[in-house]
Amino acid sequence: MKEFFDRLVAVAEAEVRYLTREPRTLLILLTQPLMMLVLYGYCVSFNLRHLPFAVWDQDRSETSRQFIGRLRSSGGGETFTLVGHFNDPRLAEDLLGSGTALFLLIIPPGFEERVSSGQPVRVQALFDGADPNTAGVAFGYLRDAVAAQNARLTLGGFERRASAATAAERGPAIGGVSFPTDSIQLRWRVFFNPSLDSTLFFIPGLIGVLMTFIAASMTATILVREKELGPMESLLTSPVGPAELVLGKMAPYVVVAGAIVLVTVLVAGFTFGIWPRGSALDLVSFSFLFLLGMLAMGMLISASAPSQQLALVAATFATLLPNMFLTGFAYPRSNMPEPLQWATLLMPGTHFITAIRGIFLKGVGWSVLWPQGLWMLLTTLLLLAGAIRRVGQQMQRGLE
Amino acid sequence: MNLRRLISIIRKEFRQLLRDQESLRLFIVAPVFQLLMFGVAVSTDLRGVSLGVVMEDPSPAARGLVRSILATGAFVLTESSARPDAAAGWLDTGAAQVVVHIPRGFGKALSRGEAPTVQVLSDGSDSNTAALAYQYLSGAALSWANRERAERFGSHPEQAVRFAGAPRVEVEPRFWYNPELRSRNFTVPGVIAIVLLMLALVQTSLVVVKERELGTLEQLSVTPIRGVELLIAKTLPSSAAALLVAGLTVIVAVVGFRVPLRGSAPFLLFSALLFMLSTTGLGLLVSVLSRSQIQAQLTSNFIALPLVLLSGFLFPIANMPAWAQWFTYLMPTRYYIEITRGVFLKGLGFAALWPQAAALAVLGTTLYLAGILLFRKQVV
After folding, report:
1. Exposed / middle / buried, residue B327 (Cβ in 10 Å: 0-12, 13-18, 19+)
2. A359 pLDDT higher than 60
3. B63 & B25 share domain
4. What pLDDT was estimated at residue B337?
5. DSSP symbol at A331
C-alpha cells in the first residue's frame, strides 16, 4: 500500500512539473474562470429593463398623454423607455426592423372620449417578436402596467360617481384599496431569490461549468500527450500501474480545480454578495464528488483519443457543451423534449447543478439532496473504474 | 504575389484537407451537434414548469382557476395537497417550481362579489423561469376572472351595474416577424453564425502552429513561397468548407426547423464571406501567437466565449451594462447575427443591413492583415 502511494505521488509530481513549465497555458486556465465570472455575473442577464417603445398617438389628448406618461414612469421609470413618436404606418416597419423600438403603441382617435364616458377602448401594441422571450416578457410588463392604470381609471371613475352612488355600491375594499375590475387578486411571493436576480441563478452553476472546463481542457489531453510525445513508453517499463497512473495524474488537477472553485466562491461572495446558504461541508463534498467524476471522464477520453487535437474536441463535445447547455445551467430542462429530459438525468452535471443551487440558494444539504449525491457517487465510481480499466488495456497493449 | 504559386499551394491544402478523414468528420459532426443542441434543446419557450396546488377550498370556482392555469400549456401539475404547510417542502426539493395557494372560502368570497386573494409562491432560483411563469399564470388568472365575471353577470344582472361604468384600456398585442413567438426562429439563425465561428476559428488557429510544431515552417521559409501566399492558401480550404457547411445549416434551418427565410439568401452568403474574413483573421492571429497546438486550441476556446456570449446570440445585448455593450461592438459575431436574424425573420436586405456588413468588412480586414503582418515579422 505504501508503494502504491509512493508511485502515485511520483506521477503527480511529474504532472505538476509539466504544468508549471507552461506558464501561459496555466495563465489561460486561471484567467478563464475570472472571465466567465465577469461575463455571467455582469453581462449576461435575462432581466429586462428600459424596453424601448415608440408611440403613434392618434388622439393627441390630455388623457392619452397621461396614459403614455404613466407607462413611462411605471416600475420607477426603469421598465420602459420612450424613444419617439411617429405618425406614419410606413415608419412602423423601420422602427421595429432596425430594432430602434421593441414595441409600438397605437392609441386610436377618440381615446379620451371613450375613457371619460366609461367605454372600453383598445390600444394596439405591435411587438418585434424576433426574440420571443423578450417580446413575451415585455408584453407581460405592458399588460401589468396597463392593468394598474385601469385600476386607477376605475377608481377615478368611481370617485367621480361616488357623489351619485351610495357607498354600498362601490367595489369591496381589500387592504384599503379596491380593484373592482379584477375579481381575484394574485399575491406573488418569490422564494430563494426574491429580487429575481439572474446573477444568483448563474454563479452557483458556473462552479460546475468551470470544473468541467478544467477536466475537458486539461485532463483530456494528458495521456494522449504522453503517447504523442513518447514518454508513454518509458512509463510502461516503470512499475507504475493503471490505478496509480490515473489517480496520480488527476491529483494536481484536483488541487488546481479546487483553487479555482475557492476563488470563484470568494469572488462571488465579495463582489456579488452571493454566499452559500447551506453548509460549507456540503458544498465541498458535492463539488469534490463531481470534480472526481469529470476528471475521470477526461482521463477516459484521453486514454481513448488518437491525438491531442481530437481529445480536446471530443472533450468539448462530450463534457463542456452539454454541461453548459443541457444540464439546466442556463436553460431550464423542463423546456426540452421529454426523451432528452430523461437523457439529461443520466448526466452527473444535471444533478450537480440541482445540488449546488440547492446549497447556495435554498440552504439545503445532504438530507434533501441525497438522491442527487447518490447518483453522482455512482457515476463517478463508474467513470473512475472505466478510466482505470481503459488505461490498463492501453498499457497491456503497449507492452505486447 | 505570384498567382501560379498561390494556386499550387491552394491545391495542396485542399488535397490535405480531403485526405484528413478525422478532421472532415469533425466538420460534419460539430455543426450537426450544435444545430441539434441549440435548435432542439435550448429553448426559452415556457413549457413543463412543475406546478403545485394547495387547495384549501374545494369549490368548482377554485378547480376552474387551476384548470385554466393548466390550459396555458406552460405548467404540469406535479403536486397537490389540502394542507398549506406542504408547499415549502415542494419548493425545497424542487418537486414544484410554482405553488398556487387557493385559500379557504375562495368560492364563497367570489360569489359574494369580493375579490379573494390567491397566493403564488415561486422558486426564484431560476429567475427567468420564475418571471415568465408568473406572466403566464397572471395572464391565465386574469382571463379566467374576466370569464367568470361575465358568467356571473349573466345570472345576476343586478351586479353588472356596478361594473358597467368601469372604463378599461385593453392592450391588443401583435407580434411581428415571429407571430407564434417560437424561440427556435430566434436561436437557429444565430446558430449559423456560431457554426461558422467555431469551424473557422478552430481550424485556422491550427494552421501555422501545426507547421511550426512539425518543424516544416522552416522548410517553407526557404522556398520561394511568400508569407501572404502561404496564409491565403492555408485559410482558403477551411473557409470554403465552413461556408459549405453554413449553406447546409441554412437548408436545415429552413427545411428541418421551418424557420422562415424572408430576405435574400445571396446577401446572407455574401455577408457570410465578410464574416469569414474576421473569423479566419482571428484564427490566424491565434495560430501565429501560439507555441503549441494545445495552446492554440485553449486560446481559441478562450476567445470563443466572449464572442458567443457578447454577440446577442443567447442573451439580449440591450440587457447588458453599458461598458459590456461597448465591447459587443468589437465582436464580429454581433454583426453577423444581426444580419442572419434580419434576413431570416425580418426580410431585410443590404439597404437596411449595410452598416453591419461594413463593420464586418472593416473588422475582418483589420484582423486578417494583422495576422499576416505578425506572421511575416516572425518568419522573415
Report:
1. middle
2. yes
3. no
4. 94
5. S
Q: Band of the pLDDT at B117, cuts 50, 70, 90?
A: confident
Closest residue by Cα to residue A101 from A81, A115, A121, A117: A81
Domain boundaries, chain A: 2-44+198-399, 51-169
A51-169 classified as CATH 3.40.50.300: no
User: What is the arithmetic mean of pLDDT over A75-95?
Assistant: 86
Residue written as grid cell 418585434: A128
Chain A residues whose CB is inside 8 A of the B305 CB are 32, 35-36, 39
Chain A to chain B Cβ contacts (< 8 Å): 345
Per-residue pLDDT of A211-255, as tens digits, reads 887 777 778 887 877 777 666 667 777 777 888 888 888 888 888
DSSP A131-196: SHHHHHHHHHHHHHHHHHHHHHHHHHHHHHHHTTS-GGGSPPPBTTB--TT-SSEEEEEEES-TT-
Q: Does A262 touch chain B (CB under 8 A)?
A: no
- Band the pLDDT of A46: cuts 50, 70, 90: low
CB-CB under 8 Å, A28 with B117: no
How much is the mean pLDDT over chain B?
A: 83
**Cβ separation B168–A150 shorter than 8 A:** yes
Please tell me the number of Cα atoms within 13 Å of A164 on its side-chain side. 6
Full residue range of the structural domain in which residue B10 is found: 3-42+182-379
| Same domain, yes or no: B53 and B197 | no
**Structure-block grid coordinates of residue B268:** 446572407
* Residue A361 contacts B where some CB pair is shorter than 8 Å: yes
Cβ contacts of residue B94 below 8 Å, gap of 6+? Answer: A354, A358, B50, B123
Q: DSSP string of A81-124?
A: EEEEE---HHHHHHHHHTTS-SEEEEEPTTHHHHHHTT--EEEE
What distance lies between CA B371 and its chain's CA centroid?
Answer: 29
Partner B, chain A 187-216, Cβ-Cβ below 8 Å: 187-194, 196-198, 200-201
Which pLDDT belongs to residue A37? 83
- Residue-wise pLDDT for B127-174, tens only, equals 778 878 888 888 888 778 777 777 766 665 555 545 544 456 677 777
Task: Give the model's pLDDT for residue A230.
Answer: 66
Chain A residues whose beta carbon lies within 8 Å of the beta carbon of residue B324: 42-43
Residue B174 belongs to a domain? no
pLDDT number for residue B243: 84
Alpha helices in chain A (DSSP H): 2-21, 23-38, 62-73, 89-97, 111-116, 132-162, 198-214, 220-229, 231-237, 242-272, 280-304, 308-315, 321-325, 338-346, 348-357, 366-399
**Pick from A125, A185, A192: which is nearest to B173 by CB?**
A125
Interface contact A310-B174, CB threshold 8 A: no
Using the Cβ of A140 and the Cβ atoms of chain B, whether some distance falls under 8 Å is answered with: yes
Does residue B177 fall inside a structural domain? no
**How far is the C-alpha of B178 from the C-alpha of A126, rounded, in Å?**
12
| Cα–Cα distance measured from residue A348 to residue A215, given in angstroms and rounded to the nearest whole number | 14
The minimal CB distance from B93 to the residues A50, A150, A368 is found for: A368
- Closest partner CB to A191 (pick from B121, B139, B174): B121
B316–A131 CB contact, under 8 Å: yes
B323 and B233 fall within a common domain: yes
Mean pLDDT value of segment B30-56: 80
Comparing A125-134, A195-204, A232-241, which segment has the lowest mean pLDDT? A232-241
